[in-house]
Amino acid sequence: MREEGLALLDRALDLAAAHKLALILDLHQIPVPRYADPGEYAALRALWRTLAKRYASRDQAILFELLNEPRIEDAARWREIVRELIADIRAEDPNRWIVVTGAEWGGAENLIKMGNLKLPNLVYTYHWYDPFVFTHQGATWTGEALKPLRGIRYPIDPEQMRGRDGWPFSDWKDGGGKDEIEKRMKPVLDFGKLEGLLLYCGEFGVHKPYAPPEDRARWIMDMVSILNAHHVCWAMWSYHSGFDLVEKDGTPTPAVVKALGLNTKK
User: Fold this and answer.
1) How far apart are CA 101 and CA 29, in angstroms?
2) How far apart are CA 14 and CA 75, in angstroms?
3) pTM of the model
4) Measured between alpha carbons, how far is residue 166 from residues 114, 144, 158, 170, 256 in Å?
5) Residues of the chain with pLDDT under 50
6) What's the CA gap between 191 and 200, in Å, rounded?
7) For residue 149, with 0-12 CB atoms within 10 Å meaning exposed, 13-18 middle and 19 or more buried, which class applies?
8) For residue 106, what is the DSSP state?
Protein backbone atom coordinates (compact mmCIF):
# COMPACT_ATOMS: atom_id res chain seq x y z
CA MET A 1 0.00 0.00 0.00
CA ARG A 2 1.52 3.31 -1.10
CA GLU A 3 1.47 5.92 1.64
CA GLU A 4 1.49 8.79 -0.87
CA GLY A 5 -1.81 7.55 -2.30
CA LEU A 6 -3.36 7.28 1.13
CA ALA A 7 -2.12 10.78 1.98
CA LEU A 8 -3.88 12.11 -1.13
CA LEU A 9 -7.06 10.39 -0.01
CA ASP A 10 -6.66 11.96 3.44
CA ARG A 11 -6.58 15.39 1.80
CA ALA A 12 -9.79 14.65 -0.11
CA LEU A 13 -11.53 13.57 3.09
CA ASP A 14 -10.30 16.71 4.84
CA LEU A 15 -11.75 18.88 2.06
CA ALA A 16 -15.08 17.09 2.33
CA ALA A 17 -15.10 17.58 6.11
CA ALA A 18 -14.27 21.27 5.74
CA HIS A 19 -17.32 21.70 3.51
CA LYS A 20 -19.53 19.50 5.70
CA LEU A 21 -20.00 16.89 3.00
CA ALA A 22 -20.75 13.25 3.65
CA LEU A 23 -19.04 10.98 1.17
CA ILE A 24 -18.76 7.45 -0.15
CA LEU A 25 -15.38 5.86 -0.71
CA ASP A 26 -16.16 3.86 -3.84
CA LEU A 27 -13.61 1.38 -5.16
CA HIS A 28 -13.87 2.26 -8.85
CA GLN A 29 -11.03 0.07 -10.08
CA ILE A 30 -10.37 -0.56 -13.78
CA PRO A 31 -9.55 -3.29 -14.56
CA VAL A 32 -11.45 -4.85 -11.69
CA PRO A 33 -9.73 -7.39 -9.44
CA ARG A 34 -9.67 -10.97 -10.69
CA TYR A 35 -11.47 -12.69 -7.85
CA ALA A 36 -10.23 -16.13 -8.87
CA ASP A 37 -6.62 -14.97 -8.59
CA PRO A 38 -5.57 -15.57 -4.95
CA GLY A 39 -3.04 -12.75 -5.00
CA GLU A 40 -5.40 -10.13 -6.43
CA TYR A 41 -8.23 -11.11 -4.14
CA ALA A 42 -5.94 -11.01 -1.11
CA ALA A 43 -4.83 -7.53 -2.16
CA LEU A 44 -8.46 -6.39 -2.42
CA ARG A 45 -9.19 -7.62 1.09
CA ALA A 46 -5.98 -6.04 2.43
CA LEU A 47 -6.95 -2.70 0.85
CA TRP A 48 -10.29 -2.59 2.65
CA ARG A 49 -8.74 -3.65 5.95
CA THR A 50 -6.19 -0.86 5.59
CA LEU A 51 -8.83 1.77 4.81
CA ALA A 52 -11.10 0.57 7.60
CA LYS A 53 -8.30 0.76 10.16
CA ARG A 54 -7.06 4.13 8.90
CA TYR A 55 -10.44 5.85 9.12
CA ALA A 56 -12.07 4.01 12.02
CA SER A 57 -11.49 6.90 14.41
CA ARG A 58 -12.22 9.74 11.98
CA ASP A 59 -15.25 11.75 13.11
CA GLN A 60 -16.80 12.10 9.68
CA ALA A 61 -19.69 10.69 7.64
CA ILE A 62 -17.86 8.21 5.40
CA LEU A 63 -19.43 5.16 3.80
CA PHE A 64 -17.46 2.39 2.07
CA GLU A 65 -18.69 1.08 -1.29
CA LEU A 66 -16.99 -2.27 -1.79
CA LEU A 67 -16.69 -2.23 -5.58
CA ASN A 68 -18.26 -0.35 -8.45
CA GLU A 69 -20.10 -2.48 -11.04
CA PRO A 70 -18.47 -5.84 -10.21
CA ARG A 71 -17.75 -7.98 -13.28
CA ILE A 72 -18.61 -11.41 -11.96
CA GLU A 73 -21.39 -13.68 -13.21
CA ASP A 74 -21.47 -16.12 -10.31
CA ALA A 75 -24.02 -14.51 -7.97
CA ALA A 76 -23.40 -17.01 -5.18
CA ARG A 77 -19.64 -16.45 -5.26
CA TRP A 78 -20.15 -12.68 -5.33
CA ARG A 79 -22.37 -12.90 -2.25
CA GLU A 80 -19.55 -14.77 -0.47
CA ILE A 81 -17.05 -12.10 -1.51
CA VAL A 82 -19.30 -9.32 -0.23
CA ARG A 83 -19.68 -11.04 3.13
CA GLU A 84 -15.92 -11.58 3.41
CA LEU A 85 -15.14 -7.94 2.61
CA ILE A 86 -17.75 -6.75 5.11
CA ALA A 87 -16.20 -8.98 7.77
CA ASP A 88 -12.74 -7.56 6.99
CA ILE A 89 -13.99 -4.00 7.38
CA ARG A 90 -16.05 -4.68 10.48
CA ALA A 91 -13.06 -6.34 12.17
CA GLU A 92 -11.44 -2.88 12.18
CA ASP A 93 -14.57 -0.72 12.37
CA PRO A 94 -17.65 -2.61 13.63
CA ASN A 95 -20.19 0.12 12.96
CA ARG A 96 -19.10 1.34 9.53
CA TRP A 97 -21.93 1.84 7.01
CA ILE A 98 -21.14 -0.17 3.87
CA VAL A 99 -22.62 0.06 0.36
CA VAL A 100 -23.23 -3.27 -1.37
CA THR A 101 -24.44 -4.19 -4.84
CA GLY A 102 -25.24 -7.23 -6.94
CA ALA A 103 -23.01 -9.04 -9.41
CA GLU A 104 -22.84 -8.44 -13.18
CA TRP A 105 -22.33 -4.67 -13.30
CA GLY A 106 -24.52 -3.77 -10.34
CA GLY A 107 -27.87 -3.65 -12.11
CA ALA A 108 -31.18 -3.68 -10.28
CA GLU A 109 -32.05 -7.26 -11.20
CA ASN A 110 -28.72 -8.52 -9.85
CA LEU A 111 -29.19 -6.66 -6.57
CA ILE A 112 -32.44 -8.60 -6.16
CA LYS A 113 -30.60 -11.80 -7.06
CA MET A 114 -27.98 -11.13 -4.36
CA GLY A 115 -30.77 -10.70 -1.85
CA ASN A 116 -30.91 -9.39 1.70
CA LEU A 117 -27.62 -10.09 3.47
CA LYS A 118 -29.32 -9.57 6.85
CA LEU A 119 -26.40 -7.59 8.26
CA PRO A 120 -26.61 -4.20 10.03
CA ASN A 121 -25.64 -0.82 8.60
CA LEU A 122 -25.82 -1.70 4.91
CA VAL A 123 -26.95 0.39 1.95
CA TYR A 124 -28.09 -1.56 -1.13
CA THR A 125 -27.19 0.14 -4.39
CA TYR A 126 -28.04 -0.28 -8.06
CA HIS A 127 -27.36 1.75 -11.21
CA TRP A 128 -30.02 2.83 -13.69
CA TYR A 129 -29.55 3.98 -17.29
CA ASP A 130 -32.75 2.75 -18.93
CA PRO A 131 -33.65 3.51 -21.69
CA PHE A 132 -30.06 2.77 -22.68
CA VAL A 133 -30.77 3.74 -26.27
CA PHE A 134 -31.33 7.29 -25.02
CA THR A 135 -28.88 7.63 -22.13
CA HIS A 136 -25.90 6.15 -24.02
CA GLN A 137 -26.47 7.42 -27.54
CA GLY A 138 -23.12 8.07 -29.20
CA ALA A 139 -21.18 6.23 -26.50
CA THR A 140 -18.09 4.51 -27.86
CA TRP A 141 -17.55 1.93 -25.10
CA THR A 142 -20.87 0.07 -24.95
CA GLY A 143 -21.31 -1.61 -28.32
CA GLU A 144 -21.37 -0.77 -32.01
CA ALA A 145 -25.13 -0.13 -32.10
CA LEU A 146 -24.87 2.95 -29.90
CA LYS A 147 -21.86 4.68 -31.49
CA PRO A 148 -23.65 6.28 -34.48
CA LEU A 149 -26.78 7.36 -32.58
CA ARG A 150 -27.62 11.05 -32.47
CA GLY A 151 -30.72 12.95 -31.37
CA ILE A 152 -32.70 10.07 -29.84
CA ARG A 153 -35.61 11.72 -28.07
CA TYR A 154 -37.07 11.17 -24.61
CA PRO A 155 -39.75 10.03 -23.99
CA ILE A 156 -38.76 7.39 -26.51
CA ASP A 157 -40.47 7.85 -29.87
CA PRO A 158 -41.42 4.48 -31.42
CA GLU A 159 -40.73 5.99 -34.85
CA GLN A 160 -37.06 6.39 -33.92
CA MET A 161 -36.94 2.69 -33.02
CA ARG A 162 -38.60 1.54 -36.24
CA GLY A 163 -36.36 -0.37 -38.61
CA ARG A 164 -33.65 -0.87 -35.97
CA ASP A 165 -33.18 -4.46 -34.88
CA GLY A 166 -31.80 -6.03 -31.72
CA TRP A 167 -30.56 -4.48 -28.50
CA PRO A 168 -31.01 -1.74 -27.35
CA PHE A 169 -33.76 -0.78 -29.79
CA SER A 170 -35.98 -3.81 -29.22
CA ASP A 171 -36.17 -3.02 -25.49
CA TRP A 172 -38.05 0.21 -26.26
CA LYS A 173 -39.68 -0.52 -29.62
CA ASP A 174 -43.05 0.66 -28.27
CA GLY A 175 -41.60 3.87 -26.82
CA GLY A 176 -42.15 5.10 -23.30
CA GLY A 177 -41.26 7.65 -20.68
CA LYS A 178 -41.55 8.13 -16.93
CA ASP A 179 -44.37 5.64 -16.38
CA GLU A 180 -42.51 2.91 -18.26
CA ILE A 181 -39.29 3.57 -16.32
CA GLU A 182 -41.14 3.37 -13.01
CA LYS A 183 -42.81 0.14 -14.13
CA ARG A 184 -39.45 -1.41 -15.01
CA MET A 185 -37.92 -0.25 -11.74
CA LYS A 186 -40.80 -1.62 -9.68
CA PRO A 187 -39.20 -5.04 -8.92
CA VAL A 188 -36.20 -3.52 -7.14
CA LEU A 189 -38.39 -0.95 -5.39
CA ASP A 190 -40.69 -3.71 -4.16
CA PHE A 191 -37.68 -5.79 -3.11
CA GLY A 192 -36.34 -2.94 -1.00
CA LYS A 193 -39.71 -2.30 0.65
CA LEU A 194 -40.40 -5.98 1.31
CA GLU A 195 -37.00 -6.54 2.91
CA GLY A 196 -36.88 -3.19 4.70
CA LEU A 197 -33.64 -2.17 2.97
CA LEU A 198 -32.09 1.25 2.46
CA LEU A 199 -31.89 1.60 -1.33
CA TYR A 200 -29.47 3.90 -3.14
CA CYS A 201 -29.43 4.51 -6.89
CA GLY A 202 -25.72 5.24 -7.04
CA GLU A 203 -25.59 6.13 -10.72
CA PHE A 204 -28.00 7.50 -13.29
CA GLY A 205 -27.38 10.00 -16.04
CA VAL A 206 -27.32 10.80 -19.75
CA HIS A 207 -24.28 10.88 -22.04
CA LYS A 208 -24.26 14.55 -22.90
CA PRO A 209 -22.70 15.06 -26.39
CA TYR A 210 -25.56 13.80 -28.58
CA ALA A 211 -28.71 13.81 -26.42
CA PRO A 212 -31.15 16.69 -27.00
CA PRO A 213 -30.51 18.96 -23.97
CA GLU A 214 -34.20 19.45 -23.11
CA ASP A 215 -34.80 15.70 -23.22
CA ARG A 216 -31.72 15.03 -21.11
CA ALA A 217 -33.06 17.38 -18.44
CA ARG A 218 -36.52 15.81 -18.69
CA TRP A 219 -35.14 12.27 -18.16
CA ILE A 220 -33.10 13.40 -15.15
CA MET A 221 -36.12 15.14 -13.67
CA ASP A 222 -38.24 12.01 -14.14
CA MET A 223 -35.60 9.84 -12.49
CA VAL A 224 -35.34 12.16 -9.48
CA SER A 225 -39.13 12.25 -9.19
CA ILE A 226 -39.39 8.44 -9.22
CA LEU A 227 -36.55 7.91 -6.74
CA ASN A 228 -37.80 10.59 -4.36
CA ALA A 229 -41.35 9.23 -4.48
CA HIS A 230 -40.07 5.80 -3.40
CA HIS A 231 -37.61 7.16 -0.81
CA VAL A 232 -34.55 5.91 -2.70
CA CYS A 233 -31.29 7.79 -2.08
CA TRP A 234 -29.51 8.82 -5.26
CA ALA A 235 -26.44 10.29 -6.93
CA MET A 236 -26.23 11.39 -10.55
CA TRP A 237 -23.34 10.28 -12.74
CA SER A 238 -21.41 12.48 -13.07
CA TYR A 239 -19.95 15.83 -12.15
CA HIS A 240 -17.56 16.20 -15.08
CA SER A 241 -17.06 13.04 -17.13
CA GLY A 242 -19.18 12.93 -20.27
CA PHE A 243 -22.44 12.84 -18.31
CA ASP A 244 -21.63 16.25 -16.88
CA LEU A 245 -23.44 18.35 -14.33
CA VAL A 246 -21.15 21.24 -15.31
CA GLU A 247 -20.02 22.88 -18.54
CA LYS A 248 -16.43 22.93 -19.82
CA ASP A 249 -15.76 26.10 -17.86
CA GLY A 250 -16.94 24.46 -14.64
CA THR A 251 -20.23 26.33 -14.34
CA PRO A 252 -23.32 24.20 -13.58
CA THR A 253 -25.76 23.48 -16.41
CA PRO A 254 -28.92 25.33 -15.24
CA ALA A 255 -31.41 22.85 -16.73
CA VAL A 256 -29.69 19.91 -15.06
CA VAL A 257 -29.42 21.71 -11.71
CA LYS A 258 -33.15 22.44 -11.90
CA ALA A 259 -33.94 18.83 -12.92
CA LEU A 260 -32.04 17.57 -9.88
CA GLY A 261 -34.01 19.89 -7.60
CA LEU A 262 -30.84 21.66 -6.47
CA ASN A 263 -30.46 25.29 -5.50
CA THR A 264 -27.21 27.10 -6.30
CA LYS A 265 -28.14 30.17 -4.25
CA LYS A 266 -26.15 30.54 -1.04
Assistant:
1) 15
2) 36
3) 0.96
4) 28, 12, 14, 5, 31
5) none
6) 13
7) buried
8) G
